[in-house]
Amino acid sequence: MVFSPGAATAGVFRCDRFRRQRIGTLRLATLLLTASLLPALQPAQAQLAGHGGPVRAIAVSADGKTVLSGSFDTAAIRWSLATESAEQVLRFHSDAVNAVAFLVDGRMATAGADGRIAIWTLGRPQPDQVLEGHTGPIVGLAVSPDASRLASASWDHTVRLWSLSDGTSRVLEGHSQNVNGAAFTPDGRSLVSVGYDLTARVWHLADGTSEIATLPASLNAVAVAPDGEIVAGAADGKLRMLTPDGKESGEVMAAATPIVALTVSNDGALIAAAGIGGTVVIVNRKARSVLRTLVGPGMPVWSVGFLPDGATLLTGGADGKIRRWNVLTGEAIGSNLLGTPADPLAAYAGDHGAEVFRACVACHTLSESEVQRAGPTLAGLFGRKIASLPGYRFSEALKAMDIVWTPETVSRLFEIGPNAYTPGTKMPEQHIGSAEDRRALTDFLTRATSK
Q: Three-class SS of residue 333?
């Protein structure tokens, strides 16, 4: 669960994937099943289906023929859009693959919650190069316009600039909290980064100085248009536009839930912004207006990417599928909506605790009979020692703690936040400020996880 630090009312919280990752890999059984299925992938009626967890990242090749995706299942997949099938599965990372990028000469980059960047060559089973230096999960990648440098955004509060020729790096420090995204300006002279600390920073790469814009909400994603305008997606559901030197120049209310991913079309005309609620809005950037909303199966959308034509959008969902959309009409291309899942909380309609928990269903199940999601199941939660669930890879920091989950300890976790209650955890900082909401949540969990 992730709770917006800038919420106007105490206790109002919002889930943000990309912020809500209780990062860890899926169960070994799930990974083995995925591995057995991937070699036999078949065209999927305009769906690219093969990941064993939410699709966290999407990159589209310059010619629009190939897609690279990264998932909570620790794998990246290179897809052919012509055949709608997987051409290569990239396995290296020990944790969620949060960011992917196409480089030049057929090379690719993947980055993960394990803090590493892998550089791949087309067709080779192992990376040619591994870039290490970050001490926290990497959640964003950007390639410089001249293709000579790679920028990485990390939850270790830093941005790094990597030389793609020799692998050397330069650290940009200044953010006080997790950095969630980075993007180069069109001339390649500056880099923009955004983070939980409410700031967007425009780094002047020649001298390392930066312009700082402090905004009203935490920032989860960033893109830069061809004319240099900066677009940031915020936890309050707004898109905020900045001038190339970091001055606020406009905003668009895009969603009722946090924006967790965004992209700008190649011509700069359109913005696609994904909210944790499961919808994607298409925005006319110049007019500052919402053109249409794309409605999918109702699960969070973690990643978006325009094809070069600017008329087709790819979205990566919590169900592990990549879908195509006609941006001009708002219609799904192919059988995108087949297999829409039932609401996992339908049986709890009217239960306040269930509504508090709704922000958590993207990553946590309530019973062991449900398909494993990105986070550990909460079945049998109360009475269980922290980080003791078999088959789930927890951080070493959690394993060393002597906490047993009870209504009181869960309430305390969200009262003071994970950083204070479970220091060293990979879980991002989050709170439920209302004692009433915390009690409703723990009462619900008592009922729902003991079945």
A: coil
DSSP 192-242: EEEETTSEEEEEETTT--EEEEE-SS-EEEEEE-TTS-EEEEETTSEEEEE
d(CA 198, CA 218): 4
Task: Kindly report the pTM of this predicted structure.
Answer: 0.70
Q: Could you tell me the domains of the chain? A: 17-332 (2.130.10.10), 346-448 (1.10.760.10)
Cα distance between residue 43 and residue 196, in whole Å: 39
Is residue 25 scored above 50 in pLDDT?
Answer: no
Structure tokens given for 52: 């064993």
| Res 430: pLDDT | 61
String of b and e for 356-387 (b: at least 16 CB within 10 Å)?
A: bbbbbbbbbbbeeeeebbbbbbbbebbebebb
CA atoms within 13 A on the CB side of 423: 1
pLDDT digits 0-9 by tens, 84-117? 888 888 989 988 999 999 998 889 999 999 999 9
Judge contact between 13 and 430, C-beta under 8 A. Answer: yes
Beta strand segments in 41-198, E: 47-49, 55-60, 66-71, 75-80, 85-91, 97-102, 107-112, 116-121, 129-132, 138-143, 149-154, 158-163, 169-173, 179-184, 190-195
Residue 335 pLDDT > 80: no
